[in-house]
Amino acid sequence: xxxxxxxxxxxxxxxxxxxxxxxxxxxxxxxxxxxxxxxxxxxxxxxxxxxxxxxxxxxxxxxxxxxxxxxxxxxxxxxxxxxxxxxxxxxxxxxxxxxxxxxxxxxxxxxxx
Length: 113
Description:
113 residues, alpha+beta, globular
């Protein structure tokens, strides 16, 4: 069996908060460390029937970037869901939610204080 590895390295500050995130996937064609400001990592435990998550972001991650990150993540999840289940109708509902989420996030960010 062939194996592939994805490496994620988190640099922490003195309070153990993420200061830098770098990742690589040499077998996947991504050579060298790539910088990132955030990572959402989900794993399905089939035995326990639970989702396990690791959600990290650096101090440099701005709110508008987080809004875009979630919007794009929702859209990607919709595409993955459609491919995995062939339920295109529900995938479109996820995309509709993503659009509403992004509009509200942008509107909230642009609202005068």
